[in-house]
């Protein structure tokens, strides 16, 4: 910060989203106009353009009709002195933001769901976006109302850590996979265990196809058994008896599969592997069509989530990146680079964003602070690949993130055992790049 500040330079304040901000990333609040001498003195007092702990910064009285008096709060308020020409720009490489970003009330506050005793492993919304299913290492599945976080109930039966869960398209049944070497089918309404399939090793991933007539499971490579991708035909009637016969078995003999799912029209099975590659299999006969080294060698793919039409998907990896890939030919469309290993990634509907979650390894968390551990949900623009903001709150690594299919919010689950449900506010929906705004104006005119 220069001593010779331009006339009209303002003191700006911002809060992170996780502490009540209305918008992704930074929220700018225009402060009282200060004289250059006063601004230079303040800059010398702060010692830098940015101050992490604002307890040393003075509160700012804003003029009547513009804002109220805000008191500095440690670790929550960030202060920045910038000239007027930069008021609408974020810092640290973030993109220009429109004025609408900082208007309105602070409505985007998370609902904390504390129903698990151990680390979260996966979160899933149903197709209507009104129910959230969560699994953890505490051997139970929880179901919650998405709008207020009320818990409807739990599903008991597994005797090991539950790694995965998925919901059928009609919200009639859910499937789960566990470290007790079983995959189970449940009636959502009654909680009844409809079917149990047993395997030699743990089930790390389950997923229904688009119409709920097929169910996929990924088994672990362990004790001399290879990793398998197994498909069962599912009767959508919860009262009907489910078959024990496998419709398809794919043996992953080179590198074990960590995640897998069905593409559009159940045409392909896409699998992510421990060596960082992605494979495309024929969903009818299990033949390998493509295998592409998408991520760095020997960096496991930790998550795979689909777009709404299942024509493309996003992967997260321990190589600190996420990739947007087509299902048809495994072409990498976009790459989102982070500064920490990633455990999960999801694509938001309605708006062009992706959300990434990760952080420092759980075994090292006790030796670092939350800020050093980088336990934030990171928002990137899906097209331009820019990071546009972060959401704090978890005090452990994020193990799973999921976007509301209606586009109204998202949920995250962490090693801390909490599920945090966020409802997007007006600032999120109003956010646009300048090129997007110009395009919208041309279309309207």
Summarize the structure.
The chain is mainly beta and 445 residues long.
Explain this structure to me?
It holds the Pfam family EIF3I. Its main location: cytoplasm. This is Eukaryotic translation initiation factor 3 subunit I. One of its GO terms (molecular function) is RNA binding. Component of the eukaryotic translation initiation factor 3 (eIF-3) complex. The chain is mainly beta and 445 residues long. The protein has one domain (112-366, 373-442): YVTN repeat-like/Quinoprotein amine dehydrogenase (Methylamine Dehydrogenase, Chain H, 7 Propeller). It contains 4 helices and 31 strands. It has helices at 36-46, 370-373, 426-430, 434-444; strands at 10-15, 50-51, 77-82, 111-113, 120-125, 131-136, 141-145, 151-155, 162-167, 173-178, 182-187, 193-198, 203-208, 214-219, 227-233, 248-252, 257-262, 268-273, 278-282, 288-292, 301-306, 312-317, 321-326, 332-337, 342-347, 353-358, 377-381, 387-391, 398-403, 409-414, 419-423. The strands form 8 sheets. Strands 4-31-30-29 form a 4-stranded antiparallel sheet, with no helix packed on it. A 4-stranded antiparallel sheet has the order 5-6-7-8, with no helix packed on it. The chain has a 4-stranded antiparallel sheet with strand order 9-10-11-12, with no helix packed on it. The chain is globular, with a radius of gyration of 24 Å. Residues 1-37 and 42-106 have low confidence and may be disordered.
């Amino acid at each position: 910060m220069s001593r010779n500040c331009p006339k009209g330079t303002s003191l700006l304040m911002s809060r992170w989203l996780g502490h009540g901000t209305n918008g992704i990333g930074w929220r700018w609040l225009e402060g009282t106009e200060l004289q250059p001498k006063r601004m230079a003195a303040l800059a010398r007092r702060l010692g830098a353009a940015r101050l992490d702990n604002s307890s040393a910064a003075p509160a700012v009285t804003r003029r009547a009709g513009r804002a109220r008096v805000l008191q500095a709060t440690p670790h929550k308020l960030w202060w920045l002195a910038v000239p007027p020409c930069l008021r609408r720009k974020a810092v640290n490489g973030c993109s220009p933001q429109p004025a609408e970003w900082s208007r309105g009330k602070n409505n985007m506050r998370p609902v904390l769901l504390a129903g698990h005793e151990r680390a979260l492993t996966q979160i899933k919304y149903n197709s209507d976006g009104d129910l959230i299913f969560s699994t953890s290492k505490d051997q139970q599945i929880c179901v919650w109302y998405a709008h207020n976080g009320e818990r409807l109930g739990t599903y008991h039966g597994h005797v090991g850590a539950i790694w995965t869960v998925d919901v059928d398209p009609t919200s009639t049944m859910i499937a789960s996979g566990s470290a007790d070497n079983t995959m189970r089918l449940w009636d959502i309404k009654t909680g009844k265990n409809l079917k149990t399939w047993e395997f030699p090793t743990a089930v790390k991933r389950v997923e229904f196809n688009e119409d709920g007539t097929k169910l996929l499971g990924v088994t672990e490579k362990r004790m001399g058994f290879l990793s398998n991708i197994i498909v069962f035909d599912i009767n959508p009637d919860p009262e009907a008896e489910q078959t024990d016969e496998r419709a398809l078995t794919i043996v992953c003999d080179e590198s074990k599969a960590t995640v897998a799912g069905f593409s559009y029209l159940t045409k392909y099975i896409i699998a992510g592997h421990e060596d960082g590659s992605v494979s495309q299999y024929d969903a009818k006969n299990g033949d390998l069509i493509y295998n592409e080294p998408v991520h760095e060698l020997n960096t496991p793919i930790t998550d795979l989530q689909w777009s709404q039409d299942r024509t493309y998907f996003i992967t997260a990896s321990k190589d600190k990146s996420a990739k947007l890939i087509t299902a048809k030919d495994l072409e990498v469309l976009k790459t989102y680079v982070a500064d920490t290993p990633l455990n999960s990634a999801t694509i938001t509907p309605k708006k062009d964003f992706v959300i990434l979650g990760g952080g420092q390894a759980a075994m090292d968390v006790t030796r670092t602070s939350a800020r050093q551990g980088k336990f934030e949900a990171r928002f990137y623009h899906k097209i331009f690949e820019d990071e546009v903001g972060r959401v704090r709150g978890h005090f452990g690594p994020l193990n799973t993130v999921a976007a509301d299919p209606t586009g109204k919010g998202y949920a995250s689950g962490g090693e801390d055992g909490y599920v945090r449900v966020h409802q997007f506010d007006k600032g999120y929906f109003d956010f646009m790049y300048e090129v997007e705004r110009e395009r919208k104006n041309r279309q309207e005119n």
